[in-house]
Design brief:
Cofactor: Mg(2+)
Oligomer: single chain
Catalytic activity: (6S)-5-formyl-5,6,7,8-tetrahydrofolate + ATP = (6R)-5,10-methenyltetrahydrofolate + ADP + phosphate
InterPro entries: FTHF_cligase, FTHF_cligase-like_sf, NagB/RpiA_transferase-like
Number of strands: 12
Radius of gyration: 16 Å
Protein name: 5-formyltetrahydrofolate cyclo-ligase
Number of domains: 1
Low-confidence stretches: none
Family: Belongs to the 5-formyltetrahydrofolate cyclo-ligase family.
Helix content: 25-40%
Order of helices and strands: HHEHEEEEEEEEHEEE
Distance between the termini: 29 Å
CATH superfamily: NagB/RpiA/CoA transferase-like
Strand content: 15-25%
Number of helices: 4
Shape: globular
Length: about 200
């Protein structure tokens, strides 16, 4: 099988695995993410000029882990928080600032994103969704390549940290990978935060 065929098969299996996360674990996951972040947060290099470090998250959809408590905690802790704006196919993501109470509008693929009036921000760190992640820091996304393109573009200019966020149940032994797949630096689940070597 090709890498793309392997990815397609794993996506199908991981959608089912994520859907099977117990209701109690799903309900507790959002608060667990925020608590783990605050207890063990990764080193995010502040801007030399004193600007707030920008962390880009994502608004959960479907059966994704609930990131909203973590987004609120980041805002309360003084980070500038951004959410992705999905562009046309084959383009990298852009990010608009989010604060509690920001108006969100519907985006492509069922996403929610800040309205056009919200200022654009460039992240220092990205909280990246995944269907599966392995011990080497490779993630399996939904197949659109948005995060890989975004990381490639941002990392061509400066250091940007990528933190995969999902349920512990989404960890696998190995994710099929191709030449354009970019590694994560950290993993944050409902049970732990760890750095990839």
């Amino acid at each position: 099988m090709t890498v793309e065929e392997d990815k397609k098969a794993l996506r199908s299996a991981m959608h089912a695995r994520r859907a099977a996360v117990a209701a109690a674990d799903r309900a507790a996951a959002g608060a667990a993410l925020a608590a783990t972040w605050r207890r063990e947060q990764p080193v995010l290099t502040p801007h030399p000029d004193g600007r707030a470090t920008v962390v880009a998250g994502f608004w959960p959809m479907g059966e994704e882990i609930d990131l909203r408590p973590l987004l609120g905690a980041l805002h309360d802790d003084g980070y500038a928080v951004g959410l992705p704006v999905t562009p046309a196919a084959a383009a990298p993501l852009r990010f608009r600032q989010w604060t509690p109470g920001t108006l969100l509008v519907g985006g492509p693929f069922g996403t929610s994103e800040p309205a056009a009036a919200a200022p654009e921000v460039e992240p220092d760190a990205l909280l990246v969704p995944f269907l599966a992640v392995d011990a080497d820091g490779y993630r399996l996304g939904y197949g659109g390549g948005y995060y890989d393109r975004t990381l490639l573009e941002l990392r061509a200019r400066r250091r940007v940290i990528a933190i995969g966020v999902g349920f512990e149940a989404q960890r696998v032994d190995r994710v099929p990978r191709g030449p354009h797949d970019d590694r994560l630096d950290w993993l944050l689940t409902d049970r732990r935060l760890l750095a990839f070597a």
